Amino acid sequence: STYVLDTNDKPSEKCGVLNVTKITENGKKVRKNWTSSWTVLQGYSLLFAKSQGGGTSWFGSQSKPEFTVDLRGGSVDWASKDKSSKKHVIELKTRQGTELLIQSENDGIINEWFKALAETISAHAWE
Ligand code: I3S
């Protein structure tokens, strides 16, 4: 279950469960660790929290984000085949030197996320 709130004066806000792994942290390659994460796009921040499975709410017992990335000055693209054997993988790079792979088995869901991330990043470029 994902939702999008689009208004004229705010970047979109969105949340849902995605498979996520870091591949680079502060410019250094790190070992992949795919995790199912509650992912929340809020302004220029992308927040991740360990998923409790299924339809668990963000406001559940463990609502603290595991980590947050700042999308300002970042880039988003579809990951090339050498980055992952999985289907529907987004590669997100931050200005701080963190690279993430974000994946969903559902191509409709991942396309919506790609659009929302790309819109957020390009909205910042125009500010
Ligand atoms: O890019 P890699 O190293 O082939 O990534 C795979 C590994 O991280 C693997 O774990 P270990 O080699 O640490 O056991 C994961 O299980 C795979 O999911 C990773 O590859 P994909 O293609 O799924 O991103």
TrEMBL record:
User: What is the top-level taxon of the source organism?
Assistant: Eukaryota
- From which residue to which does the signal peptide run? none
- Domain PH, by residue range, is 22-122
Q: What is this protein called?
A: Rho GTPase activating protein 12
- What species was this sequence derived from? Megalops atlanticus
Origin organism lineage: Eukaryota, Metazoa, Chordata, Craniata, Vertebrata
What range of the full-length protein does this chain span? 423 to 549 of 817
